[in-house]
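Before relying on records like the one below, remember that each one covers exactly one chain. Contacts with other chains, cofactors or solvent are not represented anywhere in the record.
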Amino acid sequence: MAGDQLQVLNALDVAKTQWYHFTAIIIAGMGFFTDAYDLFCISLVTKLLGRIYYHVDGAEKPGTLPPNVSAAVNGVAFCGTLAGQLFFGWLGDKLGRKKVYGMTLMLMVICSIASGLSFGHTPKSIMVTLCFFRFWLGFGIGGDYPLSATIMSEYANKKTRGAFIAAVFAMQGFGILAGGIFAIIISSAFKARFDAPPYEVDALGSTVPQADYVWRIIVMVGALPAAVTYYWRMKMPETARYTALVAKNAKQAASDMSKVLQMDIEAEPQKIEQLELEKSKFGLFSKDFAKRHGLHLLGTTTTWFLLDIAFYSQNLFQKDIFSAIGWIPSAKTMNALEEVFRIARAQTLIALCSTVPGYWFTVALIDKMGRFSIQLMGFFFMTVFMFALAIPYDHWTHKDNRFGFVIMYSLTFFFANFGPNATTFVVPAEIFPARFRSTCHGISAASGKLGAMVGAFGFLYLAQNKDKAKVDAGYPAGIGVKNSLLLLGAVNALGFLFTFLVPESKGKSLEEMSGENEDNGAEGEAELSSSSNHRTVPVA
């Protein structure tokens, strides 16, 4: 109940926006900046890897990674991320947020460098080594999801908490942007120094030996922002909510937050003991948890899973879109470094025009509109635009209509970012009890990564032409792009429906949302029953 709120937690809830809030956003956000750089930079260099290691003498087109190798190189980090989200999410609740936070960052630094130093005598051995280190890189990245979200939610005040957590996630956009810009700089510098003819003029000479350094430098630079952030992460005190509510150390929580908030805070150890006696100690897999939070966890996992299927399916159409508007010409008309430059420029423009603005619209409006409204609106417009692309798909394939297709495509992903891509990250960090918060966020995020694998790889196979003669090399026949878009529209519609399982947390304290202020008696049960009846109604 409200009277049970510890002074240290109340002080955090009502604190005015201060410098320490922005410090926390930067420290947690730089982790996400690194995550996005590391996850998305591989897509900038996969074409180059194909040219270097899978060149075929006399072939009409430059070498490309075989489908199974391409799927492994691009997807192994997702597998690592999923495992890391589950493991570090659980560990963050067992050992504390701060202790685990440094581990994830060091793993990212080591594996970023090791990925760029991948070695071997054959193309296969180099790809195996690269995949090995990218799995463990993903493992570290996975830990950053639940820990960054939980730390930011537990540091924030309740008035602007949504914007602060969303701002941490929005640093992903800058990470993608930085990856593209850095690849442009490196490829331009190498191209100026080691120019080469296009593939159609000189197949072997179009890929200079020095191109092997380009992909390694791009991959390794991801270690820099993580290494710079490590010192500041280690200086952050443990969150007061973990220290007080999980570790039961009221004195330490009050001491830490007194320094952070620059005010005197009473320790109140007796109140912690009283709360401990009053509260039920249900476990994560108990009937009590299922009764109180089961539908909430179902809501956060399903919506994140469905969102990421649609979000990561964008890989299906990017190459067609880039080619259609002239950003990336045919591969044989370019040398290897020119192709890296063109792909990086295209990704940078997409990030600048669609990805980054969507994230920051969410940051600006999440505490005004609420999480529920933004997520519902995002899924609604994603559904509308997917069906608008799919139903008249033949119309969009005509050359005169390609620009309209690009606009519709961009709007779909603008509303993903100004919508469920941000809110699915924010909400799980707000609605579960402190002792399960990191674990439940990790479970929700891992569900999302499972969806990402379905979107990125399942639809890559599904979207292949129905005519076996027209499929990409190495792939079986699929259901075609039009049917894939219709299916993605249905996925978004399901996301819209499952959003109704997710509660609105705007303007409420974390303890109100999780029910941690409720007694274990009949009064608490009555409050819980009452709150569960209105779990999805947005706060006015």
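The chain has 23 helices and no strands.
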